[in-house]
UniProtKB/TrEMBL annotation:
Classification lineage: Bacteria, Bacillati, Bacillota, Bacilli, Bacillales
EC number: 2.7.13.3
Protein name stated in the entry: histidine kinase
MF terms (GO), sorted A to Z: ATP binding; phosphoprotein phosphatase activity; phosphorelay sensor kinase activity
UniProt keyword ATP-binding, yes or no: yes
Pfam families: HAMP, HATPase_c, HisKA
Originating species: Xylanibacillus composti
Span of domain HAMP: 318-370
Source superkingdom: Bacteria
Record keywords: ATP-binding, Cell membrane, Kinase, Membrane, Nucleotide-binding, Phosphoprotein, Transferase, Transmembrane, Transmembrane helix, Two-component regulatory system
Subcellular location, record wording: Cell membrane
Membrane topology, from the record: Multi-pass membrane protein
Amino acid sequence: MRKSIVFKLFLLTTGLCLLVIASIFVGQTVFFKQFYVHQKVEKVSDALQSYQQDEWIHVGDAESAIMKEQAFYQDSNAWLALLDERGYLKYADDFKMEIRLEHSDIAPILSNATITVPLYTVMDVEEANADNPLFPDFLRKEGQRIALEGIMIQDQLYPQRIGRDVFNLRQENRLENEQLVNKEYEVVPRFESPLEYRERYPSVLVYGTITQIRLPQAEQASRYMNRLFLDRVKAFQADLLYGDYADQTNTLTDYEVNDIAYKIFVERVDQTGPPAYLFAMTSLQPVNEATEVMRSYYGYIVIGTLLLVVLASLYFSRRIAAPLLRIDTMTQRMAKLDFSNKIPIKSEDEIGSLSRNINQLSDMLNAHIVRLEQDIEKERRLEQTRKEFISGVSHELKTPLSVLESCLYIMKDKADSPRRDYYFAAMEDEVKKMNLLVNDMLELARYESGTYKLEMDSFRIDELLERICAKLAPDIAEKNIHLHVGISPVEVVANQNRIEQVIVNFMTNAIRYTPEHNHIVVSSDVETDTVKINIENKGVHIPSEQMKKIWDRFYRGEHSRHRTTGGTGLGLAISKQILELHGAPYGAMNTEDGVLFYFELKRKAKM
């Protein structure tokens, strides 16, 4: 049983802990990434909603745009850009080129017009430095004549390539909007023929002169250094220009490059005049990295956690099982009537309460069993006493009955016997003895029944002794015994009649066994709270082996129980019961030349 409960608790605790760990592992493996993405999308969407209400969308400049984009990144860990109705970054006048176009027969609407080309669409900001060897020569100074090739959409020119001249448009050092070029390759197959495409999206080649070049400085350049984000902005512009984003207000698309996933948010902002677009992009790389790290690290976590779980479960199960095992041991001992041990109570919980109740039950059972054993022992002694009593009574009554029977036979056979009066006197004496014996037996039985109640009072013990000595004076004189009485005047608390009976028994016993011409000494020892009464008869001793038996009923100090010494043999037994009812110490002992009987009584307290 002990192994069973510890083992079961260990298995249960370990199983629960492992189930929790497994649930966490499965939840993190299966749902954590989806949960993270959902939370990320919600956070960015909420941020975009709040930014739609910002005044910066309607009125702003490059500097305020940079601050808003940085604040948005700090709030949502996502990049943000505000685009105009053509898909260009708004407030990007710090990184642009203005060109005054020459006359064009292909696109007369562009003749002598001045256009602005956002340079981030055709070059990286890292290259926009005159010290960079990749920086195009034709951008080094204003007034340079350049060639532009692009498509016309709604009478607007969207440059695809920019070069020093027409031949330079296909060389490596040209400027090119790759997203717009690639989009053209994607869109052309949608048409039945390239000619049809060109009718819809005419391609133009124009020349112009650079009138102004503005390159970002210091912090302004950071806005254009996220090449991935700008590529997605240009890709969106291409979709917008070719109508792939028509009739859409808010979109959420997935994008993945180099095994890194991104979420792209586009929300249309309707306002007075042309619409604008909030373009945001966030990376899901952190959750992917965290998930991969957790997967690779989970093995160590599981091993370490399993070890801790096993140790904790073992300790936990033993801690709970130990009190139960002690209770089991205790109850097994109780079943064998062994109540010597107690369960230590070390806690105030349900186990502590159970231990306390079992201890109380053990005490109650022990008390009842002890009381039952005492009752059985008492009953056994009573049965033994009853047998001895019947035996003693039978023995005591046998002799007088035999005497009566003999006298009756003699008187029957010899009715005119001259000793008729003698036989009548003998029968009368035996009847008196039997009457005295019956009275003593009834009195002793009343004391031994346990129902007799003493009524206590106070009296002078010295006066009582003087009256008893005076009453027994004839018997003392008959045996020529010298009586010496030395009693101090002391008032005691006891039942006077019963104490008188005890003293009479002691004195009668002393007179009976004191040889003629010897002495009886009655004295007292007064203490603070008690007084000891001594009655010593001189001349005889009681054998030490019989000293303990003198208080038994019908014991006369002689094996033959001769009746020559008189008495019923119940005097000392009655005295013993009376003194025990008083709770008074008593006893008998051999002295140098006699036998001393004594008992103690409580003195009356002084008022």
